[in-house]
Write a structure and sequence with these properties.
This protein is α+β, with helices and mostly antiparallel strands and about 350 residues long. About 35% of the residues lie in helices and about 20% in strands. It has a domain of about 250 residues: Bira Bifunctional Protein, Domain 2 (BirA Bifunctional Protein, domain 2, 2-Layer Sandwich).
Amino acid sequence: MVKTWTMASKSLLPLPEKWHGIKDDDERYRRRYLDILMNEELRDLFIKKSKFWDVTRTFMKEKGFLEVETPTLEITTGGAEATPFKTHHNDYDLDVFLRISVGELWQKRLMSAGFPKTFEIGRAYRNEGSSPDHLQEFTNMEFYWSFADYNDGMDLVREMYIKIAQEVFGTTKFTTRGHSFDLADEWVKIDYVNEIKKQTGIDISTATEKEMMNKLQELKVSYEGENKERLTDTLWKYCRKNIAGPAFLINHPVLVAPLAKSLEGGGTVQMFQPILAGSEMGRGYSELNDPIDQKARFDVQQKLIDEGDSEAMMADTEFVEMLEHGMPPTCGFGFGERLFAFLADKPIRELQMFPLMRPKK
């Protein structure tokens, strides 16, 4: 039945064998275009991933949040504790960093500027190790909501996660990483200090660094850094893997949350983290809007940097100045594409269209 035939493109190399495709992971990631071409399930996952962010964006806009864009190059990184990528701005002759959060300190400035609700979906960069659940470059969403607190944030996040699950995966029930959970269930609230004490016997509010190191050695858990913040975080990471969720982790010590508002008594903060399948699936808090308290916490972080902690948060004096002008009470929250990887029960690297690869020798 063909009347004419025209070659659209030269094809000089054969495709992989039809039924088996490419099995070696290095070759799959290096020749990703062939992997996607031959693997219909993988193509469908990338379509779902696009829908995952579409549903998130629509949800936020329907709740009255304004989508914004904030700088990806920063003089000081803020909003998380991580080692940044560093580069040089030739025109300004200035060293700058790729952002490690999606505009946390910038979106808070927008709260001070009078915008009531903002959000951004964008790329973040962290110069750290890779794992099945961690990347150096990834997509995150962060929102900021003035005149709201972390209780309001928990309600909104639970509603958003259920909406994403239903629209993208058609269910709220998942089995992943050896855990099963239903997002439609009650989200229990877990106390940070009490949970560590229950699982390890260590009370981090009173334990010394030596006692914490001894416990980690007893548990055969490796750790980096011997300051209390790093040891506390490592003990929590040991405990979290035993929690299926859905749950919210609350009542974090001030030391591990330098941007969160304190609870009465001052030892803990108004912070929350969704816990699913033994891992944190986001982070939010009632934002600290006291400039005096914020400067004091930045000073603590600077001391950690001076002592060699590469992940401690850099001080931002211009941000403190903004707080001196006044920022309304605000709830902020962020989560990333790791949530999609967990719901899909796939390693996060598998769900990168083009993962970073070392050049072939």
